Structures are given as structure tokens and as C-alpha cells.
TrEMBL record:
Cleaved by autocatalysis into a large and a small subunit. Keywords: Acyltransferase, Glutathione biosynthesis, Hydrolase, Transferase, Zymogen. It comes from the Bacteria. NCBIfam families: g_glut_trans. The lineage of its organism: Bacteria, Bacillati, Bacillota, Bacilli, Bacillales. This is Glutathione hydrolase proenzyme.
Length: 538
């Protein structure tokens, strides 16, 4: 095997590595994983499985994503990696002046009609199906339609976050425009509990229209008309013309060569570049022991140096003032690496030389593999649901700046800095496999930790996910999980890190991994212990 899949590992887990040969789907909800695997068993491929799983996740994990999400994918097929950017742009009527006229002078609001950008997910599904799928969109969306129409029992972690969102929204979302969120997601006046059946007939109708029209109903037809009418009624800016103008983009993935492997990410406007810059910094160190203070210290310092660069420069790629090649150059990595000493620093952006999401991984027996991620952002997103459709809309526009000197300044038709990123690993010309960690600004930090757990420290897929994580937030502030050895936590504090031990593990992301043995075709999968995840294998 290229990478360790031994069943002996140092972190306590209720799960072992899962093996398969003909197909595998790993994601945060068992029902969705099984629906994806069913597509492979029905004659479809990994891409069909991913679309089916993603569509199911809009139903069986609505706390993290929905039909009104954005999506990104890395697809390995016929010996080549393809990138899909299915994130949407700001509506043409969403200007800084319009936002300020609505009373928001410092930033876009978190909730409501203003932060809603064009959803990319439905056309993303259709485009993946058109280019690489073997089954029709009707076939792959059928399981999601069934769960929405007939209901499913809510899982434990899902129930926990649903209840938290409902309690928060009751306090925050008081306008008439939010009524339909409560009608859809708290039909009995409360969030469903674990084991209770929840269904959404409007959601089923919308998915059926998307399936029958290859998503055109959403962008140019009946659903687009409903969205347009709702935003006009509530003084929003998303129009039918904005929806009709949207198309997902095929992009060239970007990579970092890391200790004999290639780590791949989606290019900006995604934040995958941050993970690659951090790995470029870290590959200059000889880190052989995982559970020691030096390793964690250097990882944290590299992550925060890369992060402040990403926050300073990443936006719509047509608007970036610094190229990704400059940020990922060896020369710049060495310059940033030299800033890492024995004490924690407060990071500042460098000057390069000129020149709340769901994640899934799927693979089939023919060697096709896909790393796929979609999200509403901040859990349920904007709090806006289009009446009787089940469409919960994202709030990605919240990340735009109203400061005209900022690199991510709000402009109509512009794509904002985006947190969701799929990852992929190769060695030479062979696919190793897809990996990812959902969870806002945790995602590139999670990618770095999983890659190093795998390559530097030889952990198998499940152990790489089980291992304790850190989360840098700002300045010298770092959150760590409670199972990080206390002697390391204390030693990091001695180095000047402002350490807090997080009680709720939800902030540390949720990941999935599938590795493929190129000699035997055997698939080895791991799933996130911090949620209700499953690896469905055949």
C-alpha cells in the first residue's frame, strides 16, 4: 500500500478502517452514504454516487447544506484530475450602496435576503452528471426525493445541531421573511429529536423538478420564478436573470508537492490555497513525531502564516492582486518558514515575490474517484426558505467586505472568498484518493493535519481522522480538543500560544477519507468520529 491502512493505531475510536473493492462512499450520514453506494450497485460510477449522496444530504443533514448551497468537486477519471467550481456570484443588484441603504454600514448581515448569493449546487450536480455520470439525474436524485417525501428518522448529531439552530433562530430571525424556515424545519414548533421522522414534501417537489429538467427549472423555470417573486416581495436582490446567467466552471486544480506526494485543491475563490501554502512551509521541517510540542507548534505557526495570506489575497480569481503561483512558490515558503521560531507570533500577511458544510468521498471499482463538498454556510445559511420548496438559501455574501480598499470588496457579479474545499492526494501518476474536512475556516487547517497524519506520521485513514485537532482562530489564539495530551497543551501555552480547550468538538470539522491501492484496487476508508458518519462499502 502507498499509505498505512493497518488496523493498529494510537487513537481510541469506535470504528476501524473499512475496506471495499467495487465501490465506497464516505460521508457524515449513513442514509446518504448508502444511497450513493446503491448507485454504484445499479451500474453507476463514483460520480453518480457522489451526486446521489449530495442530494440526500440536503434532506438528511439540512443543518449543514441545502438545495440553495454552493459546491466544489475534484474528480479523478481516466488518469486525470478535474476541478469543478459550482459557487455562485453576487446578484447584479447587490451593491455596497444598496447594502448601506438598508442600514448595514460595516458589513453584510449574517441572515436575511441581503447575504444570499446565486446557489451553484443544482447546476453543479447537473454538470457533473452530464460530463462524467453514467446514470440519469432522475435516477441519482430518486433516493433524496424518497427521503424528502416519505421521511426518515433523524440521527443523534443532526438532532443536536438542529435543536441549537432552532433555539438561536427563534431569538434572531423575527421578520416575516423568515417564517418559511420555521414552517419547513420546525413544523410542530420545535426541532425533531433523534429517532423522530421528518419529511419535507416541498423539498421532494423541488428535487423532482431539478431531476426532470437537469436543473433548468431552478435557474430558468418554475423554481426561478418562485425565488424571483420572493426576493422582490422582501426587498432582496436575487433575480431570475441572476439565476439564468449562472454556470458552474471547470477549473484546473492546484497542487503542492509534499514529501513524495501531490496534494491537490480547488483554486481560488476557494481557500484550499491556504492548506497548500502551509504544507509548503512545513515540508521544510523534519517532523517525525506527531505527539510532541515541536510538531504542534510548527503546524500552528505555519497554518496561521498561510491563513493571514489567504485572508489578505483570496477572492474571485479575476480580481486577485497576487497570483497563486506567487503564494505557492518555494522562495515565498522559505521566507514564511524563516518567521517560525520557538515562540508563538502574531501573524501578518506577507508580500509574495512578483511573478457550518457537508463533505463526501466516493470511489468505484473502475478507478473513478471524487472529492465533493457543498454548504449553505453557518449551518442552515441565511434563514431564508422559499415557500413550499424546501430550498434553504446560503449566506455566502456575508464574507464580502464593504471597504472599497479590501481585496474581497462587494461587487455585483463577483464571487466571494469561499471556505468550502475538497482535497485529493496523488503519487506520481496514480490516484491515492479523496479527502476532506468540512467546517468553515477549520477546513484548510483540517487538510494540513490529515495530510501530515497520513504522510508524516503513517496513520491509517480512520486514525488520521480520530487524532486530536487544533483550530487557530486569530492572533495567538488556538483551540485544542480535550483529548490532546495535557503535557502538550501546557507546553504550547509556555511557547506563548493562547490555548483554550474546547468542550464542544463541533468546531473541529468533520472529515472523510478514501485511499486506493493501485496494485490491487482495494479501497480503504475512514469516517469522522465527531458525527454520525459512515463508510458504505461494496
Amino acid at each position: 500500500m502507498l499509505l498505512s491502512t493497518q488496523d493498529q493505531y494510537p487513537y481510541a475510536s469506535k470504528r476501524n478502517v473499512v475496506y471495499g473493492k467495487k465501490g465506497m462512499v464516505a460521508t457524515s450520514q449513513p442514509l446518504a452514504a448508502q444511497a450513493g453506494l446503491d448507485m454504484i450497485k445499479a451500474g453507476g460510477n463514483a460520480i453518480d454516487a457522489a451526486i446521489a449522496t449530495a442530494a440526500c444530504l440536503t434532506v438528511v443533514e439540512p443543518t449543514s447544506n441545502g438545495i440553495g448551497s454552493d459546491a466544489f468537486a475534484l474528480v479523478w477519471t481516466d488518469g486525470k484530475l478535474h476541478g469543478l467550481n459550482a459557487s455562485g456570484q453576487a446578484p447584479m443588484g447587490l451593491t455596497p450602496e444598496a447594502v448601506k441603504a438598508a442600514g448595514h454600514t460595516k458589513e453584510l448581515p449574517t441572515y436575511g435576503v441581503l447575504p444570499v448569493t446565486v446557489p451553484g449546487t443544482p447546476r453543479g450536480w447537473a454538470e457533473l452528471s452530464r460530463k462524467f455520470g453514467k446514470l440519469s439525474l432522475k435516477e441519482v436524485l430518486a433516493p433524496a426525493i424518497d427521503y424528502a417525501e416519505n421521511g426518515y428518522p433523524v440521527s443523534p448529531t443532526l438532532a443536536k445541531y438542529w435543536a441549537k439552530a432552532a433555539a438561536s433562530f427563534r431569538k434572531k430571525l423575527t421578520g416575516d421573511e423568515f417564517k418559511h424556515w420555521f414552517d419547513t424545519f420546525t413544523p410542530d414548533g420545535k426541532a425533531p429529536k433523534a429517532g423522530e421522522i421528518w419529511k419535507s414534501p416541498g423539498h421532494a417537489k423541488t428535487l423532482r423538478l431539478i431531476a426532470e429538467t437537469n436543473a433548468e427549472a431552478f435557474y430558468t423555470g418554475e423554481i426561478a420564478d418562485q425565488i424571483d417573486a420572493f426576493f422582490k416581495k422582501h426587498q432582496g436582490h436575487l433575480t431570475k436573470e441572476d439565476l439564468a446567467a449562472y454556470q458552474p466552471e471547470w477549473v484546473e486544480p492546484i497542487k503542492s508537492d509534499y514529501k513524495g506526494y501531490e496534494v491537490w485543491e480547488i483554486p481560488p475563490n476557494g481557500q484550499g490555497l491556504i492548506a497548500l501554502e502551509a504544507l509548503n512551509i512545513l515540508k521544510g521541517f523534519d517532523l517525525k513525531t506527531k505527539d510532541c510540542v515541536d510538531t504542534y507548534h510548527k503546524q500552528i505557526e505555519a497554518v496561521k502564516l498561510a491563513f493571514v495570506d489567504g485572508m489578505a489575497y483570496i477572492t474571485d480569481p479575476r480580481e486577485m492582486k497576487v497570483s497563486q503561483e506567487e503564494l505557492l512558490s518555494d522562495e515565498y515558503a522559505a521566507e514564511r518558514r524563516a518567521l517560525i521560531g520557538e515562540e508563538a507570533i502574531t501573524p501578518e500577511p506577507g508580500t509574495p515575490p512578483s511573478g457550518g458544510t457537508v463533505y463526501l468521498a466516493a470511489a468505484d471499482g473502475d478507478g473513478n474517484m471524487i472529492s465533493f463538498i457543498q454548504s449553505n454556510y453557518m449551518g442552515f445559511g441565511s434563514g431564508i426558505v422559499i415557500p413550499e420548496t424546501g430550498i434553504a438559501l446560503q449566506n455566502r455574501g456575508h464574507n464580502f467586505s464593504l471597504d472599497e480598499t479590501h481585496h474581497n470588496y462587494l461587487k455585483p457579479g463577483r464571487k466571494t472568498y469561499h471556505t468550502i474545499i475538497p482535497g485529493f492526494l496523488t503519487k506520481g501518476n496514480e490516484a491515492v484518493g479523496p479527502f476532506g474536512v468540512m467546517g468553515g475556516f477549520m477546513q484548510p487547517q483540517g487538510h494540513v493535519q490529515i495530510v501530515m497524519n497520513t504522510i508524516d506520521f503513517g496513520l491509517n485513514p480512520q486514525a488520521a481522522l480520530d487524532a486530536p485537532r487544533f483550530l487557530w482562530t486569530e492572533g495567538k489564539k488556538v483551540q485544542v480538543e480535550a483529548n490532546l495530551p495535557i503535557e502538550i497543551t501546557r507546553a504550547l501555552a509556555d511557547k506563548g500560544h493562547d490555548i483554550s480547550i474546547a468542550i464542544d468538538e463541533g468546531g473541529f470539522g468533520r472529515g472523510q477519507i478514501i485511499w486506493r491501492n493501485p496494485e490491487t484496487g482495494v479501497l480503504a476508508g475512514g469516517t469522522e468520529p465527531r458525527t454520525d458518519g459512515e463508510v458504505a462499502a461494496w
